[in-house]
Amino acid sequence: MTQPAFHRIDGVLHVENVSAVDLATQFGTPLYVYSRAALTAAWRAYAGACAGRRASVHVAVKANSNLAVLNLFARLGAGFDIVSGGELARVLAAGGKAENVVFSGVGKSAEEMRVALEAGVKCFNVESIPELDRLNAVAGEVGRKAPVSLRVNPDVDPKTHPYISTGLKANKFGVAFDDARAAYRAAAAMPNLAVVGIDCHIGSQITDIAPYLDAIDKLLELVVQIEADGTQIHHIDVGGGLGISYHDETPPDIGDFVRTVLDRIAERGHGQREVFFEPGRSLVGNAGVLLTRVEFLKPGAEKNFAIVDAAMNDLARPAMYNAYHAIEPVVERTDAPQVYDVVGPVCESGDWLGRARSLAIEPGDLLAIRSAGAYSFAMSSNYNTRPRAAEVMVDGARVHVARERETVAQLFAGERLLPD
Ligand code: LLP
């Protein structure tokens, strides 16, 4: 049996064959650590379920855009889902190919469109009529036809956190279901666009397949109407959004999810179309941890605080979404645990990483914040002039520095004092 990517040897957390204590000692804290084996296994779960089917996987770059992570996926044969010109540049720098890139996002600039057209991306996932107009104009200037898909808002409730639910009528995303047929007619009439597909993305951290199937059924209904109007739909992009287990969630297994989606599309008579998946979190989320060191313990009348050296600037998800990340001591102690709020040094009451956690810890101890591979480093900031953490990728017994720790000098290198 191969070891799980994160496991304990004599009570000490290891990432593959490397002790987390050694990682923290060598690279300092806060430190993001990714397991190459865990990333690869998640990719293979998607790719394996797609094998032999007309289906492909586009990694949502926003979840973790580190070049080493993208490079690993590119080597494994991944396509990519991007939302900015910056993400396109990262994909190309990481060895990805533009022809395997879908460009999502609700507010693409003309410049981003131009660069993506010239690079030759596979598809623009367009979200409004004004965006169609802009893309048509830019494509005319560049002298290329832009391949487009319209992101349709199927108005289904993915039953996830309101900030990460995107397929409801009340969300800013996509073309309203009732307007989609007309929007496709408009797109088909634009001389510099080539309609190639249809897409949706109903939310993130979804732990139930039912809303996907509802969204797919609605999309397929539309596909029939669009084709009746004379426009061919080659691919159906079902977006990303599959959840992971942070705490006690029980999301569907990746392979089951992919097969259920593909089977549904085939059963409805659309098996000849290519299907795209755009997963982010389910590929990278549980392949990373954030290591942090306890600076002080601060017992209080109402609460005990464990003040650690990672903060909301390193991991924003608890502050932003009230998100739960498991927190474990790197080295287990046998003392009786106490209940702590685990908080960072940033000057905000919202700077917390975990609340009411039962931990046996002392100052100087290391903690591992689990499930920190997705939307963690990628959402980090320099608030409080805190340099962003280093990122390393463990591969068996080897450790690759995927991103050096920032220095304070880098943080204000682009700033200027006033002139005399
Ligand atoms: N495709 C599109 C068009 C998206 O907007 C997203 C994520 C994905 C794919 C990937 O979704 P995933 O498989 O990762 O759920 N920062 C939030 C999550 C925001 C997700 C935004 N869109 C969080 O930390 O929970």
From TrEMBL:
InterPro entries membership: Ala_racemase/Decarboxylase_C, DAP_deCOOHase_LysA, De-COase2_C, De-COase2_N, Orn/DAP/Arg_de-COase, PLP-binding_barrel
Cofactor: pyridoxal 5'-phosphate
EC number: 4.1.1.20
GO biological process, one term: lysine biosynthetic process via diaminopimelate
Pathway(s) it belongs to: Amino-acid biosynthesis; L-lysine biosynthesis via DAP pathway; L-lysine from DL-2,6-diaminopimelate: step 1/1
GO MF terms, alphabetically ordered: diaminopimelate decarboxylase activity; pyridoxal phosphate binding
Positions of substrate binding: 281, 317, 321, 348, 375
Name of the top EC class for this enzyme: lyase
Reaction equations catalysed: meso-2,6-diaminopimelate + H(+) = L-lysine + CO2
Assembly, per entry: Homodimer.
Designated name of the protein: Diaminopimelate decarboxylase
UniProt source species: Paraburkholderia caballeronis
Gene that encodes it: lysA
